[in-house]
Amino acid sequence: MNRSIWTAMLSLPALTVMATPAYAVDYLNVEQAQRAVIPNATSFAAYPVSLSSAQLKQIKSIAHVPQRTDKPSVWKAIAGGKQVGWVIVDEVIGKHEMITYATGISMDGHVLGVEIMSYRESKGSQVRNAKWRNLFRGKSVSDPFKLNKDIPNISGATLSCRNITDGVKRLLALHQVALAKP
């Protein structure tokens, strides 16, 4: 092979790496997110959950989206020696990359707060806007969650909005299926 072909072949991976945009931003770690979604909690205790295939099917049936992992990241939120809620850290896909978020859920299954922990997309980070995230507060699994109807879409962040909305609904279904006390 001539030298120019070899040069082009060897430089292509370097150009690809240089052309790949890096937009990942970590806003909160787990501890910060826990305190943000349930600020009255004084401590958080990891709560191992292992979902059965029947529970995974039940979550999908309720939320209309699948639960991707059978071992979600869950913590009990404690205040005054008593449990006051749950914190679940989850990921959903944006347009191309994962969005890590935390949801605080009350003992009776209402959203207490939603925080974006890591956002890796080049566009659509408006989902971090507190006004938009606060629209989830008070919602339960029985409430409607239709994007553009119940939760407004943000122009330029449609997929992030849809997937976070679906994710919060799924976490409420997870709460109902695996965490709520009868």
Automatic annotation (TrEMBL):
Keywords: Electron transport, Flavoprotein, FMN, Phosphoprotein, Signal, Transport
Residue stretches making up the FMN-binding domain: 94-175
Entry-linked InterPro entries: FMN-bd (IPR007329), Ion_transpt_RnfG/RsxG (IPR010209)
Record-level Gene Ontology MF annotations: electron transfer activity; FMN binding
A GO BP entry: electron transport chain
Pfam families linked to this entry: FMN_bind
Annotated signal peptide: 1-24
Any one of the GO CC terms: plasma membrane
Protein known as: FMN-binding protein
